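Weekly sync, protein design subgroup
Attendees: M.S., D.O., the rotation student, P.L. (late)

Item 1: inverse folding check
M.S. brought a backbone from last month's batch and wanted to see whether the design step gives back something sensible before we order anything. D.O. pointed out we never logged the input encoding, so this time it goes straight into the notes. Structure tokens as presented (309 positions):
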């Protein structure tokens, strides 16, 4: 193949992943936030908080929504697949916030912050449901569980290669708890995630919300938002329970009050999903999900994204 055509193909690949070609593009014209991307059977599913159906003055939607794509270019709106009402124990005015999905033993487990003080778990045989409440009570309940923190929201589940499973959540203080292999019961106490200062410049950042963990080349990368507004920053460690050492900023402040990220491998690349104000009429309560490629330098440090404002 000639060099010219190789260059043309590289450019075409870049443009295919249109978010690399310039301004961030939302995956849908509908307002959505808090992306939770997962690959099931070669399809990327993004589970989301539905900002389209909120009041516009608060995150008071009661629906979770899903999108899917095989190429990160053509997206299918899979609709509102779950309402907080699936959890009979939810308060009448409970809101549906940043969700998480995990697959194990052929089942799909959907972790759902309900009303800001509880996390429920629903289960289904398919990535889009139908889901039923897995245990008939909250998995995490601020009123019942020691050390659940002020606001147990933003669940994130990490299943290690050896099967050990960890649930992260929380605002202001990051929390982690082991889950049993059944994915619906706690296997130990709720712990605080410790983030220590960078050994090179002594820096760290306050934890706000949106805990997320991924592993690369034997290192665990713990990412989170620093607050309201927040930067997305990261710390690294040698075990899913930490401690993690602060490293630096991935995504700078946006022009909205929240920032919420997730990282996924798909089609041979690492993708960083987040939300921003991208559509006409968008603001802090009417957010849009987008993504860009995530890159590391030769020392394994994450290269800060240039989508920062
Ligand atoms: O969407 C409601 C809340 O806003 C989420 O739980 C937070 O992560 C923030 O994005």
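Designed sequence read out in the meeting:
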């Amino acid at each position: 193949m000639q060099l010219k055509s190789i260059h043309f193909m590289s450019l075409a690949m870049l443009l295919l992943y249109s978010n690399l070609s310039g301004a961030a593009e939302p995956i849908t014209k509908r307002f959505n936030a808090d992306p939770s991307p997962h690959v099931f059977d070669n399809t990327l599913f993004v589970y989301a908080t539905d900002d389209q159906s909120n009041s516009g003055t608060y995150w008071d939607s009661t629906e979770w929504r899903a999108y899917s794509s095989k190429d990160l270019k053509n997206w299918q709106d899979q609709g509102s697949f779950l309402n907080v009402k699936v959890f009979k124990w939810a308060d009448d005015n409970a809101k549906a916030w940043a969700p998480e999905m995990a697959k194990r033993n052929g089942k799909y487990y959907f972790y759902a912050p309900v009303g800001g003080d509880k996390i429920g778990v629903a289960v289904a045989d398919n990535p889009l449901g139908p889901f039923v409440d897995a245990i008939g009570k909250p998995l995490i309940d601020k009123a019942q569980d020691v050390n659940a923190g002020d606001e147990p929201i933003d669940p994130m589940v990490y299943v290690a290669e050896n099967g050990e499973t960890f649930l992260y959540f929380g605002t202001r203080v990051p929390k982690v708890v082991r889950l049993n292999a059944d994915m619906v019961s706690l296997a130990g106490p709720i712990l605080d995630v410790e983030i220590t200062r960078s050994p090179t410049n002594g820096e760290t950042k306050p934890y706000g919300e949106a805990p997320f963990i991924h592993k690369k080349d034997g290192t665990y990368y713990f990412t989170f938002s620093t607050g309201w507004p927040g930067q997305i920053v990261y710390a690294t460690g040698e075990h899913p329970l930490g401690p993690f050492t602060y490293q630096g900023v991935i995504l700078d402040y946006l022009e909205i009050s929240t920032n919420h990220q997730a990282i996924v491998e798909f089609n041979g690349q690492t993708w960083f999903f987040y939300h921003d104000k991208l559509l006409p009429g968008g603001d802090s309560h009417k957010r849009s999900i987008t993504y860009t490629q995530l890159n590391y330098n030769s020392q394994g440090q994450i290269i800060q994204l240039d989508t920062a404002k």
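Discussion: The mean pLDDT is 93. Residues 11-293 form a domain with the Tachylectin-2; Chain A fold (CATH 2.115.10.20).
Action: P.L. to compare against the previous round before Friday.
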